[in-house]
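Translate structure to sequence.
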């Protein structure tokens, strides 16, 4: 007769596999600010992990709130906080501010990004604070 080894843990209970913190999918952090301009364009600056987050939202809004947009990466010559040294800047041409005012744009963009992607968007009304994030 073979000797059976005594189980260390009850069935389906593995103590060494227990996690202290639940593992969840990572959440991307996005920062958003409206840059001041003098001409008839609107400039929005983003700190994003990947530009596809911004491009997806603006492709959906094109034709409804503005005629066209251009997205460029601006690399800062002087690193302010040691983390972010570049920002994606979206220049919107011919914005239709009668449908939605410029003060409501960040709220709408934030809602669209958070519904589409797993991210947390922070809006900075002060552009100087945005540069230091």
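Result:
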């Amino acid at each position: 007769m073979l000797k059976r080894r005594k189980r260390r843990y009850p069935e389906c209970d593995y103590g060494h596999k227990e996690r202290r913190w639940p593992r969840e999918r990572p959440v991307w952090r996005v920062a958003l600010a409206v840059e001041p301009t003098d001409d008839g364009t609107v400039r929005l600056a983003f700190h994003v992990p990947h530009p596809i987050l911004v491009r997806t939202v603006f492709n959906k809004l094109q034709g409804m709130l503005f005629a066209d947009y251009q997205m460029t990466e601006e690399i800062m010559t002087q690193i302010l906080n040691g983390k972010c040294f570049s920002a994606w800047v979206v220049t919107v041409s011919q914005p239709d501010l009668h449908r939605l005012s410029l003060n409501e744009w960040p709220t709408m963009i934030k809602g669209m990004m958070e519904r589409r992607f797993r991210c947390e968007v922070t809006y900075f009304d002060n552009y100087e604070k945005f540069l230091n994030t």
